[in-house]
# Entry
Amino acid sequence: MKTTHLLFLIALSSGWAAEVRPSPAALPARALTHALVDVAQHVTPAVAMVTVEGYQQIAHTPAGPTMFGMRMAGGSGVIVSADGYIVTNAHVVSGATRIRVQLSSNRAAEGRSVVRPPGPVMPARLVGYDAETDLALLKVDATGLTFLDLADSDVVQQGQLVVAVGSPGGLESSMTMGVISAVARQLQPDDRVVYLQTDAPINPGNSGGALVDIEGRLIGINTMILSQSGGSEGLGFAVPSDIVRFVIDQMRQNGFVLRGEIGVEAQTITAGLAARLGLARDCGVVLADVLPGGPADAAGLRIGDIVLALNGKPMENARQFHVNLYRHAVSSIVTVKVLRGAHTIEKQIVVLARSNSPERFSSRVNESQHLVPRLSILALPIDRSIAEILGWPPRRPYGILVARLAMTTSGPSGDLLPGDIIYEINRTPVSTLRELRDAVDAQPEDESTVLQVERAGRIRYVEMRVNER
# Structure
């Protein structure tokens, strides 16, 4: 009996051990599971929820005034330094008069509850804003934060596993998995921004969140989806980390993105362009315009020149040319090799700062001092410091600069734009914010108001209805 009982126990033990031993086929799945758990533990503390308040259009009738009111919106943000710098999307904070950030909780819930306590909520300051890349940089007063380092997005490969972390629908620290569908997706020909395309589920609220690889390294900032339903359809796009790094560095240094240019407009050569224009090549980069009086014009470049290389690096498309150009420091010298007819020519050209970035003023305003509610703008009076960075001399020695618009306002053509300078309201000159507010407040709600505005160096009239009081 004892022998039989002992054999039974041995058999039972052996059978039990066989049941819990993972099969060879299950080992890769277990390894992937452990890797994803590690990613979640590493990444989620560095992803924050961003909440904004701002003036937004809430009603409009053709016969009446446009109605505006305060509205809350939100997205995600990624902490990129221990001292409180957070990158998000520009469209998340566009027009916001108040920005708050909820950090992820690093504390474990007491007892056995799987529900973590909420993280701290703190005000955030807008450091910089860049519409071209749809990126913005925020700052909170905190230290010792968990953050993510920016990886090298140039080594990302099609097909590799990635994880998206954000707050879709306000659901903090949500995590989804997919693959890289494409590593350099352009939404329009010659776009200067390329995206990492992923099928990892991304939904409204993920904007500004992290796209990381299976090691938890930040390779992109989730920005948009293409969707007919409004939800995830497997077409998500993230700004690559190499672009994010450049933008963050510029914002921390200048408060805006300072891009270099040489005064040309480049286009990618297509078979049609090559055939119709009689170009010597059917691929590459052609100069469609050389601005009169610009650096390239002074150096001798011409319309129709085919760009072969920039500082010795071959140029394959217009996007590559412009991006490689604007990364060079202002006042530096670049060497451009072009093909003109049968001749190869090299030119030394001075890089100048691109001057048409109105977002460079957005970090200088705050809602308590610069809000003009009835125009739904944040504005700055023109002074010497503002005039110096406009990029062109103002036509008049006074005026009010439109620094930022109301949140996600998209009015009809002719409305105010960032960078506009307001000189008059119904022929009444304005030179201070008080004068502007008083003039606007004097306007009836049911009548049009005409503003005299300078836009990119040209005077124009803007007709609009002011908001209700």
